[in-house]
Write a structure and sequence with these properties.
The complex is a heterodimer of chains A (about 475) and B (about 100).
Chain A: H1 3-27, H2 34-53, H3 62-79, H4 86-112, H5 118-146, H6 161-181, H7 188-204, H8 212-234, H9 237-260, H10 265-270, H11 294-303, E1 306-311, H12 313-317, H13 321-333, E2 337-342, H14 352-359, E3 367-369, H15 370-376, E4 382-386, H16 395-398, E5 417-422, E6 442-446, H17 449-465
Parallel strand pairs in A: 1-2, 1-4, 2-3, 4-5, 5-6
Helix pairs in contact in A: 1-2, 1-9, 4-5, 4-8, 5-6, 5-7, 5-8, 6-7, 8-9, 11-17, 13-17
Chain B: H1 3-24, H2 31-42, H3 45-55, H4 59-89
Helix pairs in contact in B: 2-4, 3-4
Classes of the chains: A alpha/beta (about 475), B mainly alpha (about 100).
Chain lengths: ~475, ~100
């Protein structure tokens, strides 16, 4: 085949891939068509890969095959991690994506120096800076999610932090400008890369805790836009499209996460959440709470006709989801209507709680979004909160002095009875006191989530068999 | 502005809008698989990595290209793999299974 003809074939294949990419995302919109979406994406990737390997510009295959095998060897185990570990796997894959795009940009710079235009240099500079900061930022995020010893999980803040971080970014931008003015300064380029890598660390280290779902979405969007920029550098439309899709996906998810916490982007990026402390927390210590035993809880649940379970990441930490599934089965068998209320930021990344419950075989049509559940809660007999805290805090609605005031919450306090499974009265992740626990209608079920739900299940099945 | 840049910009803007409209419609139920799938699609960067490594222009470009091939291909394989795995977990409650 002539070179021109084969190039035409390659480009045609890329166009088919782009169409399949878009269909993949379209089909992912609903659980009934989602598997078709993955298949479409896989075919698209395979076609693009085959077309590229047939490209006459590619002279050497041995090492490329080795690299592909290594990649598959790393990728397959990372695809088999536990569902609780999916957030860190995702952060790591943002890091790999950004690394890959940055390295290509760096190679393109050194190969292309003699023929680089000012404009082309600007594209490469921007691409490599964003790619590098996404690489280290994602590594830090993955380390925080994996709870690696040396990386503090809680936000790390010091005085003048924002000024330091922004100055580092400013230096990186100045270096891009210097390179645009004269691209033939190969010694400046690595400095720019190192500074961007440092900025990525500075960017993510101060963020943590409850903000991880937002951070992971933002890094997703950066990784996507890096790939799109690389498409500009290499004049490759297939990269521009894939990057734009990935980038806009991460961007939309970040917006959803920010809205779900009633916070702005700048607030997430530059104001560490863990620092906020309630002023009135001490005054509430004298208030009393009502607690209940597993037997009492089981009786109340069995007598209910409608139960809403509100799970949080605490449920997954306690590995309680399979016991929750048994509870769901037991109550459903008794004719109790059980649904699950999922807050958008429940879990450690967007949609995480849904996957965790789906893994425990809970049918997905029982998993309800916040707005749907909130309209049902006033007609609900029992709201059972398992391992969730801030997303049920009525202070978000009523107390303008609360740090989470204005955050959309699940209105569990509107149910007739609220039951909260909790280890102790210690405040949650963000250190904010929850007035829900002191209501007359609230019963505290003190204990480990897995153990307590297990005890309730035992009571329920005991009642039906004896 | 170079004409390549302009045509890429058109593509970027259009793809961004298409993405925005499609992703808005993805159920929050599937936001985790959405992220892993778009990640796998983004790993199409592997085609650029293969070209850079395969052109054999300089030693540096070959080495960087090969690392990029491995990094992005791991995303592609792992991303599709885990998305598929997660989607298998989503079962409808309608046909009552035992």
């Amino acid at each position: 085949m002539s070179s021109a003809a084969s190039m035409q074939l390659i480009h045609t294949t890329y166009i088919v891939s782009v169409v399949l990419f878009i269909l993949a995302i379209k089909w992912l919109s609903s659980p009934t068509t989602a598997k078709r979406g993955v298949l479409s994406g896989e075919i698209a990737a395979a076609l693009a890969l085959a077309a590229t390997l047939a490209d006459p510009e590619v002279h050497e295959y041995k090492w490329i095959v080795v690299a592909l095998v290594v990649g598959a060897g790393v990728g397959i185990p990372l695809g088999m991690v536990k569902i609780t570990a999916v957030p860190q796997r995702t952060a790591l894959s943002h890091a790999f994506g950004a690394l890959s795009a940055s390295l290509i940009g760096i190679a393109e710079y050194y190969v292309g120096i003699p023929r680089l235009t000012h404009f082309g240099m600007g594209e490469i500079g921007l691409e490599v800076v964003i790619g590098s900061l996404t690489f280290t930022g994602s590594l830090i995020a993955a380390a925080k999610l994996q709870e690696i010893k040396f990386i503090p999980q809680r936000p790390v803040v010091y005085k003048g932090q924002n000024i330091v971080s922004l100055s580092v970014l400013a230096v990186a931008v100045l270096l891009i400008i210097a390179l645009v003015i004269n691209p033939e300064q190969p010694y400046l380029f690595p400095i720019m890369v190192v500074i961007s890598l440092v900025f990525g660390v500075l960017l993510v280290t101060p963020i943590g805790g409850a903000d991880m779902p937002t951070v992971i979405s933002l890094l997703n969007s950066y990784a996507g836009f890096t790939a799109a920029l690389l498409g500009f550098v290499l004049n490759s439309k297939v990269l521009v499209v894939a990057g734009a899709l990935d980038g806009s996906s991460g961007f939309i998810l970040s917006v959803i996460m920010c809205k779900a916490m009633n916070r702005s982007f700048t607030n997430v990026m530059f104001g560490a959440f863990g620092q906020v402390q309630t002023s009135g927390a001490a005054a509430q210590e004298t208030r009393t709470v009502r607690s209940a035993s597993p037997e009492e809880a089981a009786e109340i649940l069995a007598a209910a006709s409608k139960v809403v379970v509100v799970p949080g990441y605490g449920m997954a930490v306690a590995q309680a989801q399979h016991k929750v599934r048994e509870l769901f089965d037991n109550l459903t068998k008794k004719g109790v209507e059980v649904t699950f209320g999922i807050h958008p930021v429940a879990g450690r990344m967007p949609g995480h709680m849904n996957v965790l419950l789906a893994e425990a075989d809970i049918p997905y049509d029982r998993l309800k979004e916040m707005d749907d559940v909130n309209s049902e809660l006033p007609q609900t007999d029992v709201a059972l909160v398992i391992g969730a805290n801030d997303v049920t805090n009525p202070a978000a609605r009523t107390d303008p002095g609360s740090p989470i005031y204005g955050m959309p919450i699940l209105d569990v306090d509107k149910a007739r009875t609220v039951m909260v499974i909790k280890r102790s009265m210690n405040p949650g992740f963000a250190g904010i006191d929850n007035p829900l626990y002191y209501f007359d209608k609230t019963l505290m079920l003190f204990g480990d989530a897995k153990g307590f739900v297990g005890d309730i299940v035992r009571e329920l099945s005991g009642n039906s068999s004896h | 502005m170079p004409s390549d840049f302009l045509s890429n910009l058109y593509v970027f803007i259009l793809a961004g809008f298409v993405g925005f409209e499609l992703i808005k419609r993805v159920s929050p139920l599937l936001h985790t698989p959405l992220m892993s799938l778009t990640n796998a699609l983004d790993a199409i960067v592997v085609v650029a990595a293969i070209i850079i490594a395969g052109r054999q222009e300089t030693k540096l470009s070959v080495i960087l290209g090969l690392i990029a091939v491995a990094a992005s291909f791991s995303n592609m394989v792992g991303g599709f793999f885990i998305t598929d795995r997660m989607l298998r977990m989503f079962k409808s409650g309608k046909p009552k299974k035992s």
